[in-house]
Write a structure and sequence with these properties.
2 domains, single chain, mainly alpha, MetI-like fold
């Protein structure tokens, strides 16, 4: 057979392949560029010059040389009593007595009502690096009494402080605690239910019309908008099961005034949201295990459950774990269902348990971006960086765990 039979239009086919390769490279480059520009925009908002003014210098509020940050509750209450008008003091004490307020709440009152720091203007990181002289001149002209400083909005105070109406004193401590607590309870509910359902559907269920309909609906549920799950959670967990989710049935102290809008309600709602994803990922992981492994185990006298427990599940563990962590990563960034079930947009107290009111990082970011002051957008950018790090950490943990399971399988452990 002649060689020319296998080489018709070879140059044209190679050229076509090269064009497609270039198209795929362009798509990859566009995706990387888009992601890089997004991260650069967030970082650009998280750092930069800030000019501030204050009605009262915090240094003048020291008590026997002790700064505000180190004063106890009684001293802080005395500072408030001696520096605010009688009318304002009566109003604050009527809302809630100063003696019953936490140290963080008293500090927030001092900052908001006495010090009254005001962010006059902020600049982005790029402006601060390339237009520093122009910024200093502008501040000297427009804000002669202002204090210009380079500020990193990602700082220790961001993690240590609760939410506040003053941007410079606001933090995400309560939001981080709420997010982690919600994710933990979500995982505790969704993982055993999802893996258990996947084992039944893949290993025990017969291939009939009813089971095929069930599997089809599970796939459909994975594509339902998250706000629908929020409406379902509002109807079932917040209202119908309010005695349970508020903690009233357990006489929990944190249940007072909770009305079912608690961490437990949010966790159960998010568990419903990611449950189809966990089932699908676990079922695909079990399906990838060759039947020869099952048949070999059954041939030596093992029962069905012994085969699943000692052979199938260990072989599929890496894929199941990876899929579960990715599902939890999705729950970390959810906002719509939590808004519906009643997450607090402004909460200064940390969650004390599953029956506490709560907020999460996405909710707090949403609340900050909705405010008109520019400094809260800088805070939102800093919180977005923290959320990205948490999400990437979960994904990295999934990859590390997957590689560890695969290495142990290769070594026969």
């Amino acid at each position: 057979m002649k060689r020319d039979t296998f080489t018709p239009n070879l140059a044209a086919r190679n050229a076509k392949g090269a064009r497609w390769r270039l198209a795929f490279l362009a798509a990859t480059a566009f995706s990387v560029l888009f992601l890089a520009s997004l991260i650069a925009s967030i970082v650009n908002q998280s750092f930069g010059y800030v000019v501030m003014t204050a009605e009262v210098d915090p240094a003048t509020l020291q008590n026997d040389g002790v700064p505000l940050e180190k004063q106890d509750e009684a001293t802080l209450a005395g500072t408030i009593r001696g520096n605010v008008s009688r009318r304002l003091f009566v109003k604050l004490d009527a809302e809630r007595s100063l003696a019953s307020r936490s140290r963080e709440e008293l500090l927030e009152i001092i900052v908001a009502e006495i010090v009254q720091p005001t962010v006059r203007r902020t600049w982005t990181l790029a402006q601060s690096l390339f237009d520093a002289d122009a910024i200093r001149g502008q501040v000297a002209e427009e804000y002669p009494d202002g204090n210009l400083s380079f500020r990193s909005w990602v700082n220790a105070g961001l993690f240590a402080n609760p939410q506040s109406s003053v941007a410079t004193a606001a933090g995400i401590r309560g939001a981080i605690i709420g997010s982690l607590a919600t994710l933990l309870l979500t995982l505790l509910v969704a993982f055993p239910l999802g893996v258990g359902a996947a084992i039944y559907l893949q290993e025990y269920a017969k291939d009939n019309a009813i089971n095929r309909i069930i599997e089809t609906n599970i796939y459909n549920l994975a594509g339902v908008p998250s706000i629908i799950y929020g409406m379902l959670g509002l109807a079932i967990f917040v209202r119908a099961l309010e005695p349970l989710t508020s903690g009233a049935i357990f006489r929990a102290a944190a249940a007072e005034g909770a009305n079912g809008r608690t961490i437990l309600s949010a966790s159960l709602t998010l568990a419903l949201l990611i449950l189809p994803i966990v089932i699908i990922n676990a079922q695909e992981a079990l399906r990838a295990i060759p039947d020869s492994l099952r048949q070999s185990s059954l041939a030596v006298g093992a029962t069905k459950w012994q085969t699943i427990r000692h052979h199938v599940l260990p072989a599929a563990a890496d894929r199941i774990l990876t899929g579960t962590v990715l599902a939890v990563s999705r729950a970390l960034g959810e906002t719509a269902p939590l808004v519906v079930v009643g997450a607090s947009t402004f909460l200064t107290q940390d969650p004390a348990g599953p029956f506490s009111k709560f907020t999460t990082l996405p909710i707090q970011i949403y609340q900050w971006t909705a405010r008109p002051q520019a400094e809260f957008r800088n805070l939102a950018a800093a919180a977005i960086l923290v959320l990205l790090v948490l999400g990437l950490s979960l994904n990295a943990a999934a990859i590390i765990a997957r590689n560890r399971f695969r290495r142990e399988k290769r070594l026969g452990r």
